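Notes from the pairing session

We agreed to fold both candidates in a single pass and log them together. This is the raw record for the first candidate, unedited. Please don't reformat it; downstream parsing expects exactly this layout.

Candidate A
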Amino acid sequence: MSLPDAVTPVILDTILGHLAPHFLADTQGDRPAARHAASQMLAAYDAETAEELCLAAEIIGFGSQALKALGEAASSDRPVSEKFGHRVSAANLIRQVRDAQRRLDQARRLRRGASELPRSSRAGETGVGAVDVRALMESHQQAGAV
């Protein structure tokens, strides 16, 4: 699975850095464990391009925030107006998740259509700096960076 866009360890590290805080509470503040959880969530999307990787990160981030807002809305010690605000926030975040999922699906369809073209005809594909996202994430994990 080669990436037409350059996905460097820095790009992956940045994305994981933004996603990790969503998992900190559940890992009792253990940042490496939070980054590992974020990497596992990201790997589940099987992104093959930088665009797909970013869209998967959006889905995970917005989805996590939506779940937190729903949890806050279900809290019995909150005023009704605050619960309503959390439900509205959750609904807006869920719309963002659906939009990012649609864009991810579209990007995959376009990539799959482009992959049927001869290699030299693929727009923007140079092969320079191309990286296998799964292999990159696995090497990060083995090195203890994730």
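Candidate B (folded immediately after A)
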Amino acid sequence: MSTRPFNFSAGPAVLPEAVLQQAAAEMLNWHGSGMGVMEMSHRGKEFIHIYEQAEADFRELMAIPSEFKILFMQGGGLAENAIVPLNLSRGLAADFVVTGGWSQKSAQEAGKYCQARVAASNQANGHTSLPAPSSWRLNADAQYVHICSNETIHGLEFHELPDLQALGCRAPLVIDFSSHVASRPVDWSKVGLAFAGAQKNLGPAGVTLVVVREDLLGHALDICPSAFDYRLVAQHASMYNTPPTFGIYIAGLTFQWLKQQTEVTAEGVALHGVAAMQARNVAKAELFYNYLDRSSVFESRVAPSARSRMNVPFFLKPELEAQRGPALYESLLSGAKAAGLLQLKGHKSLGGLRASLYNAMPLAGVQALIAYLQAFEKTGL
């Protein structure tokens, strides 16, 4: 049994231990090739095999239809905030649903390349609930509608994707699903493009996955760098420039690990892959939120209907935070580290604490965190 600490980092984040062990074993000599993956030519047969397997596994894992291209790119989600409008906006307009720090960044960045309009925002309530899609002010001339389907900083998640057609909108839906990719199934009939930095749920920082419907290719602005033109990247099977080879390799190992995961429901139904991960993630999140809702010391400040299963910001109760917050947070984080519970500090823009419960975080990690917080309530105050 592993004795590694439990890492609650929001990203770069915990990876499956089996993936790390396999990568370590293959570090110097991948499958008898005499080379490590980081030393391979991205055009050699060894890496082409790694790439093709990773792409096929991701398509199978996420049930991605054939009319979508899978691109392995660089720049992370932050760069995609520019790359998406460079490819889809045609220099015209796009609508943004601002529900937290990341969607806010997306709208601001897109404003450099097109008219970026805020169709809805929850800023007035401090990013603690989600605006109902029926309230969104969508425009007929929008080239796309952007949402961040899980806000890593503020801890909100769209548990169902909006159906833009049902709202009378013909624009494609763009989703930033960086922090919940592969944690639940995706209804691709509602999506035109999805992107995700790998460093939260799939692999190391450096590789970004883009899933884009083929009819959205070929509309890049003239100022779009060639390496960021989705059409060119797709035509060259993500090899237009040297891709992040090691990141693709680790992501590929993670896809294989995910495909092997199984959960059995209370009714005896066996779930596999992403469906199994969804069941686990629901159980982990429910356990932790139930603890917070019963706690006399800690609280979640997100509306229950909008709570993220992946990222849980939590805080001391207001009176306790106002009186002793800084000292108690410092004491709590110090004790957590000593107990093998790492990276629980909240985002700098919010303060408090944050536990990220990504796919590779086992239920035992959540149980250990709850036990530590319960003990802190009794002895740490």
